[in-house]
Target: Deoxyribodipyrimidine photo-lyase
Amino acid sequence: MDNKVVLFWFRRDLRLEDNAGLAEALQSGYKVLPVFIFDEEILSRLDDKYDRRVDYIHQALAHIREDLATFGSSIKTCFGKPLEVFKKLFTEHDIAAVYCNRDYEPQAIKRDMAIKKLAEEKGAGFYDFKDQVIFEHRDILKADGMPYTIYTPYSNKWKASLTPADYSARKWRTEAFEKLKALPLPGLEAIGFEKTDITFTVPVLNAAIIDSYDQYRDFPAMDHTTHLGIALRFGTISIRKCVAFALEHNQTWLNELIWREFFMQILFHFPKVVTHSFKAKYDHIKWRNNEEEFERWCNGETGYPIVDAGMKQLNATGRMHNRVRMIVASFLCKHLLIDWRWGEAYFAAKLLDYDLSANNGNWQWAAGCGCDAAPYFRVFNPTTQTEKFDKKLEYIKKWNPGFQTDLKPPVVKHEFARERVLAVYKKALEDNN
Model:
């Protein structure tokens, strides 16, 4: 036992404090060797090597490495295909078990099953834990044992099921880390990426923002949102900490955290949504998929100032205000009749806080084809949305400053687009009832 270690495999949980799987590993009775793998299979799919998300992960790892040094330990950072990396780790260390936190995406589940199988072949344990959610896929079910597909009853059951134990921080022991000199952290260039302009900072919960979140969250010029999307995506903040804070400060923000879990369990129970509409008959919509118009949307050149401002903000920063995300997504699907999957893929490439379940769920919501979607006949009018949420044009002026001098003719007229999309959707639904 003296030579045996357990590995704690960091993934979407890049923090030491209040980390469920890490806390369990540290209670195992063995010394804990922290490990992170830059997954070659995932990284190879990222075409833009100036990717702020990879840089964010890299900086978060550097922060973990510094913290571990204060406990006389370090983190082993690897680059490669996870299964191949683990085969090598098993030759380098006498491993009693692998500990990690559960992931719920289809490819991640497949990856973890392969690592579990390898561990068992090597006579080691494989233990995974709930950490990135309060309630996972089988915790909140209907009376008949089936998953919820409508948000409101899911949310009601979620809140009724919540106890303080669900959001209490997980206690951890620092003395159980393997004693190690600082292990090297490969540079970004070594894994094929470039340094970007993003700076990792330890996430904080800002009461001044969250207390009035419900009043100001829809006004993009105010920027009155938490900016915690990327922190929740990569686990640099604990969901338990966020929920505890939301319960004390703002129910509307709590509802947003519950939406996150709702979409995660939809993805788990209905993995077909990755490539197909949740409502199958919507897969028969005759999309126009005009490539030139898609390019104009991507570049923020639609002639609708708020749509263009949103896309320019996304392209420049990797962020986009949530209200504007709804406007630009509706515009692509409804005004241009371009397949929601095109927009979803573009957001996946650009968003700092890209998360498969939320991105997929929200795009299907905008297109009207999701599990709890806006009805197909709801077509956001960009002009009306501007009047309601950016009346003084402050957001538009910031991100689309040339909108008055370099005004491009609208790619399509709103009224024409609305009538066209209603006719196309109606025909597809009637023909496939």
Q: What stands out?
A: The chain has three domains: 1-131, 133-168+205-269, 273-431.
